[in-house]
Amino acid sequence: MSERTDQLRRLGLAWNEAWNSRDVSRLTRFFAPRSTFYEPSLAGPMPGADGVTASAEKTWADWPRAVFAAVTITIEEPRVVIEWRTSAAHRTGLQHLLEGVDILELDGDLVASCRVYYDTRVEAPPVKRAAGAAGKRRAGPPRRAPGSKPPRPRR
């Protein structure tokens, strides 16, 4: 592995650690002055530091105990792709499994562009049964209140 590849892998790990730190200043330090940030819940790309600040504050408010695990880090200079996963309870109490990728386009050692994409699945809460209850829950998707939608995750 080249020295530059190793440096970019460490950058990817530091990015993930910054999300888990819940310290927005650790995230904004990654961005170049004219950078952009985009994630699906935004209307469009935003200036890098502003976009990541808005996204991080919303994420941390909605997912107070979320811890993001880096699954893979792919280096294709000047691009670093961090695949991540978390299983977390939304502030509403619903349990979600979130999987996504953060794509960092670099200009030197700073992020010129960050695009975030993710998928979410609602996990069924554990079924509580009365002592001696017989039968099994039928297979199928998790239950939600009629007309309700799962909350949109942010990262």
Overview of this protein structure:
This protein has 155 residues and is α+β, with helices and mostly antiparallel strands. It has one domain (3-123): Nuclear Transport Factor 2, Chain: A (Roll), CATH 3.10.450. The protein is built from 3 helices and 6 strands; from the N terminus they run ααββαββββ. The chain has helices spanning 3-21, 24-28, 48-62; strands at 31-38, 46-47, 69-76, 79-89, 95-107, 110-123. A 6-stranded mixed beta sheet has the order 2-1-6-5-4-3, with helices on one face. The radius of gyration is 18 Å and the shape is globular. It starts with a helix and ends in a 32-residue tail after the last strand. The model is unreliable at 135-146 (pLDDT under 50).
Give a nutshell description of this structure.
By secondary structure, the chain is an alpha+beta fold.
